[in-house]
Specification:
Number of strands: 4
Distance between the termini: 54 Å
Structural class: alpha+beta
Strand order of the largest sheet: 1-3-2-4
Helix content: 55-70%
Number of helices: 5
Largest sheet: 4 strands, mixed
Radius of gyration: 19 Å
Shape: elongated
Length: 180
C-alpha cells in the first residue's frame, strides 16, 4: 500500500472513536440552523472538484455521457444514503419544546462502510479506468458528489421531521422524551 492509501485508514482509526464518543448523548437540534452545514459543504466540494481537475497529470478530456452518468449515480446513491442516515437519527422532543437528536449506531456503521467501500472502489476503479474506458477524474468526482448528496439530503430529511414535530404533528421516527 502507498502512503496515499494509508491516510484514509489512519483517518478512520482516529475518527471512529471520536465520532462514537460524540454521539453517546443526544445533541440539541436547531432546525433553523440546519442549512449551515450544506451551505459550507457544497461550495467546498465544488472547490474540491475544481481542484481535482487542476491536479498535475489530471486527465483534461471533457466528460462524456458515461462520466456524467457516473456523477449522477454517485449523487443519487449519496442522496439515498443521506435519506437513510437521516431516518436512522432519533429525534426526541422535550417538554420545554427543544429537540434532541442522536445518530443511530447503524448510521455510524453506514458511514464507516461507505468510507471503506470508497477506498476499496477507488483502489480498484482508478488503476483500471483507462482499460475500462472510464474517466478517472469522473470516478474521483463521483465520490465527492456522493458526499454532497448524502449531507444535503440527510439535513433536508431531518429538517422536515423536526419542523413537523415542532408544529405539533407526529412522526413515527420521533421519540417523545420522558417527562422530567
Amino acid at each position: 500500500m502507498t502512503p496515499q492509501q494509508y491516510a484514509p485508514l489512519i483517518t478512520l482509526v482516529i475518527m471512529v472513536p471520536l465520532i462514537l464518543l460524540r454521539n453517546r448523548a443526544p445533541r440539541t437540534l436547531r432546525p433553523k440552523w440546519m442549512w449551515v452545514t450544506p451551505a459550507i459543504i457544497v461550495p467546498l466540494m465544488g472547490l474540491a472538484l475544481w481542484g481535482t481537475s487542476m491536479e498535475p497529470g489530471a486527465d483534461h478530456t471533457p466528460f462524456d455521457v458515461t462520466a456524467w452518468a457516473m456523477l449522477a449515480l454517485g449523487f443519487l446513491l449519496g442522496c439515498a444514503a443521506g435519506w437513510w442516515r437521516g431516518k436512522m437519527t432519533t429525534i426526541q422532543r422535550h417538554p420545554d419544546g427543544t429537540l434532541k437528536a442522536q445518530a443511530s449506531p447503524l448510521g455510524i456503521i453506514l458511514i464507516i462502510g461507505l468510507f471503506l467501500g470508497r477506498s476499496t472502489l477507488r483502489s480498484v476503479l482508478e488503476p483500471h479506468a483507462a482499460a475500462w474506458h472510464l474517466n478517472a477524474l469522473a470516478i474521483a468526482d463521483a465520490f465527492l458528489v456522493f458526499v454532497v448528496g448524502m449531507i444535503v439530503v440527510q439535513r433536508i430529511e431531518m429538517f422536515i421531521r423536526a419542523r413537523r414535530v415542532l408544529a405539533g404533528g407526529t412522526d413515527s421516527h420521533v421519540a417523545a422524551a420522558p417527562a422530567a
